[in-house]
Amino acid sequence: MRLRSKHVVLSLCLVCLSCLRLSAQEGRNALLSLPPFERGVVVVKFFEGLHGKDCYPYVGYGHKLQKGEHFTVAMTERQADSLLRADLIKRLMIFKDYGKDALLLAVLSYNVGTSRLLGYGKHPKSQLLRKIESGDRNFYREFVSFCRYKGKVLRGLVKRRKVEFALFYVP
Fold first, then answer.
1. Could you list the pLDDT tens digit for every one of the 171 residues in the chain?
2. Fewest CB atoms within 10 A around its CB: which of 68, 93, 95, 120?
3. Which is nearest to 80 in space by CA: 109, 49, 114?
4. What is the sign of the dihedral through the CA atoms of 24, 83, 146 and 124?
């Protein structure tokens, strides 16, 4: 049953990835034929979208401006793509010790931030990372729990987490 729901979510994801301009089956095959990192780029681009003026301090595909950075909202799609790839590579380096889960954690942290996963100040390391470190591969519930904004569960984030899990979870 779980495998079937995974395929349903993946199919829904691929239908939504209209940027590929392919049928659902062709889109599914095209997306799965991409290298994992490229899949991550496509998924982040789809769910983040190219941010406009009303999204400050976020530019490009969800890059949060850091102190000293001088990117503008008027960046081209090519510049935004390059910035996204650089950000994902940085996150992959942060989570490289998690092996086959590194890309899953990198894509998640692109949306929720690395500190929410790794812990900061008085906030402990996330339950998700603790489960992965202990070798427990049954962490779907912990992964999908990162779907709240200001305490409320957002359906769009639930959908995003299910798609990310379906594409990047390696048993």
1. 455 555 545 555 554 554 445 566 777 778 888 999 999 999 999 999 998 888 888 999 999 888 988 888 888 899 999 999 999 999 999 999 999 999 999 999 999 999 999 999 888 999 999 999 999 999 999 999 999 999 999 999 999 999 999 999 998
2. 68
3. 49
4. positive
Name the burial class of residue 13, with classes exposed (0-12), middle (13-18) and buried (19+) by CB atoms within 10 angstroms of its CB. Answer: buried
Amino acid identity for residue 13 in this structure: C
Q: Are 83 and 71 in contact (CB under 8 A)?
A: yes
CA distance 129 to 117: 7
d(CA 112, CA 69) in angstroms, rounded, equals 20
